[in-house]
Amino acid sequence: MESERIRVLVVDDHPMWRDAVARDLDEAGITVAGTAGDGAKALRIAPAARPTLAVVDLHLPDMSGVELTAALVALPEPPRVLVLSASGAGDDVLAAVKAGATGYLVKSAGREELLDAVRRVDRGEAVYTPGLAGLVLGEYRRLSSDERRPEAAAPALTPRETEVLRLVAKGLAYKQIAQRLSISHRTVQNHVQNTLTKLHLHNRAQLVRYAIDQGLG
């Protein structure tokens, strides 16, 4: 079953809220790979916990949820990130998405809405609280328009780098890409790093956005 495959890391500095989310997931048959009350612990336990998805609050005591999201999606086997925040402010939503979050829900969401979002985000679907999706799409279109420079020559990627980039844009983890292409996990990492360098990008989220702009997603 899909729920049995999902492994969630819950990150929230409010113990009661963190425990409630973990309990809802557990009761739905979704594995809670770990919980953390701050970003440092989340990053410390993530490599061993190997979550497929992280539910992240925006306001943490040691770093912002945006910073944590960027750090999580930069891991060798990155989880997808669903932000669960009390804030529905446009700036917060866009900052989280730009950092690499796949979904964004406000904490007023009901239990079933949360569980549905977890399952869909784990599959790679972009999920937002109603009313926020249009905001995100509009921002992506604006960024794409601002950053498109016809006079600039497209960086030359090798066929294999392009193939890896396409799979990254589809939301596959490095291990899944390695299995799909019958190459090693380290080789996938090397291709991604070479592509980042060529494109002057800094993280997986930027790489995905580039791939979508190029029609590779």
From TrEMBL:
Domain HTH luxR-type residue range list: 150-215
Protein known as: DNA-binding NarL/FixJ family response regulator
Native source species: Nocardiopsis algeriensis
Any one Pfam family match given in the protein's UniProt record, by short name: Response_reg
Domain Response regulatory: 7-122
Modified residues (4-aspartylphosphate): 57
Domain of life: Bacteria
Gene Ontology BP, a term: phosphorelay signal transduction system
UniProt xrefs under CDD domains: LuxR_C_like, REC_NarL-like
Keywords: DNA-binding, Phosphoprotein
Gene Ontology molecular function terms on file: DNA binding
InterPro entries documented for this protein: CheY-like_superfamily (IPR011006), NreC/VraR/RcsB-like_REC (IPR058245), Sig_transdc_resp-reg_C-effctor (IPR016032), Sig_transdc_resp-reg_receiver (IPR001789), Tscrpt_reg_LuxR_C (IPR000792), WalR-like (IPR039420)
